[in-house]
Amino acid sequence: MGRKRSIPWIYRWSRPIIGAIAIAGAILTAYLTITKLMGGEVECSADGGASCSGVLNSEYATVFGLPLSLFGCLAYISMAVFALSPLLVNSDTSKKLRKDIENWTWLLLLAGSTAMAVFSGYLMYVLAFKIQAVCYYCIGSALFALSMLILTILGRDWEDIGQIFFTGIIVAVMTLVGTLGVYANVNNPDLAANPEVEVVDADGMIKIPLAKGDPKPPKGWEITTNSEAAEIALAKHLTAIGAEKYGAFWCPHCYEQKQLFGEEAFKEVNYVECANLANPRQQSSACRQAGITSYPTWKINGKLYPGTQTLQELAKLSDYQGEQTFKYKLR
Length: 331
Fold this sequence. Notes:
The protein has 331 residues and is α/β, with parallel strands linked by helices.
């Protein structure tokens, strides 16, 4: 009587390992998403966090007006479900059901991990050649995606190797085409060069135009909004009481703050540039000494207020009593 062939360890443990990686990725991207939506800055040891913040606040980090990390979180959750769901089915009582679920979820794991690996590969290209910065969160997520793809391919005895190549190629091409389409405006600034038409909302205010293209040191994106008397008066009041605005030229949220004031008014603001212009990934000594940990941050009457502030909020914080018919609002 022959000996029963032993099952390779990777066949037995591939699904739990993929599930663990997916759960870790979901936690990571959930943290980035919550931080982004709350207007905070991520914790990162690289250059005081400037590099991570610059990457995660770039145009590449937003898709359809939502944080890219949100879509990443949903993808990781899906991968965890695909990997672990067959393990919840009792193989003794529902052997056929479990077998069917395993077969389908292996295909879903292959498609999902391929798509995530291709998309992550594109983001690594952007990181290295477009943004030219270091983001440990992004690199970690890319390694997670690649690990899941490798484990999916090696983690079972695929009866038809051609199935792997056919599915992988189709999914990879579709993912790459979709990715290039999503980032078409970012990669080709000429497509987004037309100025936005100002639309006055019911409250009489205009939503500020967002940043387009790459920021240019030392001033970053060009301010495209115009100031009126209320914005200029508030800016002069803030400077008169010693208020300071800390920011970095590459920070989109700092640009939003500038757009709220308009070009003329922002010239009156006491602005402190925190990006070391010789090496934008590093924070200037003045901002480190001031205890600045995120951009933008306002210092008003000795207190720090992180995040983009509406002009109404700045008026309240600074006890401004003048005209408050401000023109612009956040999107």
